């Protein structure tokens, strides 16, 4: 409030103070997350007899603790990227369906149906994944292995249901709604002026979308995909139930391999000793930093897009 | 390339609302026809029915006939996409594709319609930009984005984009309403040149503009707000502006209402 | 150059491509809906069998590893208490932050920083918020595992959602309304409390319910903060508690069919609660603003 010759009313000071304080509390929480994770990670890292960033095995509960983030970080990144590759094209298709293809009367209802995917709790996806998708994926996985086995990703001698591919598929389903929702909003904002310009030149619906909607929406889709990537990396319970919890680095996504930082925290917490908890906290710190970077990058792209949209208006 | 348009008993709707009713007229080739009338009288809606852009708006539909020479634009086997490719349109506000260069904007329509060699494209783009009186201003920066041009230049770029596909008719929806007087003059000069090759239909709010550029003028009006717009009369521009047949037309052009 | 006459039909290749994309887009939508239907169908099919009074009124105490029976009463109680406590923490902080951003921030450096970190906070993985409460509340401060610790972790996940939805609603309140109030000499804070917040009230309630729905299904933060128990614990401030999502996770990890059955029923109960919250929230929005429907 600007300074004025009149006396400021009583009450405004405390209220303003409280609301500003709440905002600062939020910033403080973000800072505290970083600080306290570091505080509890350090003793465990000091007890570690191996190199945290490169070691693959995870035995922090042993008398000679040996643990490292290598295999877990690899699994986190690989499963999230696979999920992203599977989810993004489908999500963009869903977004276009809602924004430009579905009958207008149905569009918002159908959009809500897709949003419902996001309302299903993660643990339910995990249960569904373990009991239905894992056995179901055995067939398609064998097929991929038989016919496309020459591609290293699909190679390997053992093919199982509890694989990197199945976990990535569940992750893809879980991040699809957020990517679809943001893309849909961006596509709906595409300027009608440019859409009409394309149509008036004799463009078909797809050509109109390619000429005016997609170029406008691209930054939005990119940041939506990055937000989805961040989600996939932090997703815990569903993949904790599916991953076979191995500690190696393998690109054979149909084989009995796979783990992630988050899944390892959920699976390892129950029997963790003090050093074990510290080790899990250290791995969580790494996860926090990675997702923080991915999210900040996504927000940065969105912020740039706003300016671009304003300039184009 | 220019063609005659014949409209018979045309109604246009937005959902259940009837925007224009019972319009019949003949638009002559190689001439400029201006549509004038108060706001909301349906002249822009009517213009958009001539290249089937009206139905792009959800819930909008058209009844009646529009013939280009002897083809019914609303015939059962006619693809609206090919109609729009044959009848070009320039909009109220310049709308170049923001992510494309000047060259790509002009070439956008051509690229949709089959392959052209680079030299062919170069030729047509240059010809179209010259046709739109823009070539001299942009020939050194064809690879710069079209959004960097001034408003008047952008509108001429849009005209170049529209004529690059060799349409048979050019529809202009208040093409100067967002432009300053100097740019407006440039566009008006351009319209006079283009009519040698094209059938041009222009919607305008500016009666001096209609008087300056058009050969024929059609006056649209509506009985009351919420009623459908109708064609009051259409005649030689000189006649409409000096000795209109209808009292409503005279009232409108002498500024008594509207 | 060829002189074209009449309306030239577009090439069949272009038409085919347009068709193909249309098919792909419809296919994408179908592809997205299939897992949803599959999940809902299996949850209902496998969960309905054990959705009985025993399930809703009994805990897992004294239920042997191979026994049928048992229930999720302790987990349902736990979830309700945890979510309520989380809301009591997150809603005031989130709402006040939104008020700051809309009414007091004035686009300054602090408000831009807060706004940015609210966005970033939405991306904090739920397991990290659990780890934070574990590190700070339980390991550093030496507090016990408890429902309240779980509520702390959930509140961190709720806050950004509450801020964003409340902020959006506050921005929808017309300026004229505020100015009319100022013109009457009403001080700013009373204008906010008496005019702005009531106007935005239903919108804010909707946002809070969506936030509650989001965290009610979270498992990972609970796992690290409330621990796991088979017994009823009505006191959220003392000793391990259960939560419904945690119950599903726990039962799903046990090797017997009777446990897996309980997991499905727990999942069904959880989905019913979450969907109900979602539905009510959407209905409020829909009912309040028919004009904003798309």
Automatic annotation (TrEMBL), chain A:
Biological source species: Microbispora bryophytorum
Cited SUPFAM superfamilies: MetI-like
Residues annotated as transmembrane: 21-45, 65-98, 110-139, 159-183, 236-258, 278-302
GO cellular component terms given for this protein: plasma membrane
UniProt entry tagged with the keyword Membrane: yes
Protein's UniProt name: Phosphate transport system permease protein
Domain of life the protein comes from: Bacteria
Compartments where found: Cell membrane
From TrEMBL, chain B:
NCBIfam families: 3a0107s01c2 (TIGR00972)
CC terms in the record's Gene Ontology section: membrane
Native organism taxonomy: Bacteria, Bacillati, Actinomycetota, Actinomycetes, Streptosporangiales
Domain of life per record: Bacteria
BP term (GO), one: phosphate ion transmembrane transport
GO molecular function terms noted in the UniProt entry: ATP binding; ATP hydrolysis activity; phosphate transmembrane transporter activity
Species annotation: Microbispora bryophytorum
Protein name, per record: Phosphate import ATP-binding protein PstB
SUPFAM superfamilies referenced in this protein's UniProt entry, alphabetically: P-loop containing nucleoside triphosphate hydrolases (SSF52540)
Any Pfam family hit: ABC_tran
Location of the ABC transporter domain: 5-247
UniProt keyword Transport, yes or no: yes
Listed InterPro entries: AAA+_ATPase, ABC_transporter-like_ATP-bd, ABC_transporter-like_CS, P-loop_NTPase, PstB-like
Keywords: ATP-binding, Nucleotide-binding, Translocase, Transport
Protein's UniProt keywords contain Transport: yes
From TrEMBL, chain C:
Protein location: Cell membrane
The keyword Membrane is annotated on this UniProt entry: yes
Domain of life: Bacteria
Originating species: Microbispora bryophytorum
Function of the molecule: Part of the binding-protein-dependent transport system for phosphate; probably responsible for the translocation of the substrate across the membrane.
GO MF annotations, alphabetized: phosphate transmembrane transporter activity
Protein's recorded name: Phosphate transport system permease protein PstA
All copies of domain ABC transmembrane type-1, residue ranges: 76-281
Ranges that cross the membrane: 20-44, 83-102, 114-139, 145-163, 195-216, 263-284
Cross-referenced CDD domains: TM_PBP2 (cd06261)
GO cellular component terms attached to this protein's record: plasma membrane
Membrane topology term: Multi-pass membrane protein
Homology family: Belongs to the binding-protein-dependent transport system permease family. CysTW subfamily.
Family matches, as InterPro entries: MetI-like, MetI-like_sf, Phosphate_PstA, Phosphate_transprt_permease
Entry keywords, A to Z: Cell membrane, Membrane, Phosphate transport, Transmembrane, Transmembrane helix, Transport
Main location, first listed in the record: membrane
An example Gene Ontology biological process: phosphate ion transmembrane transport
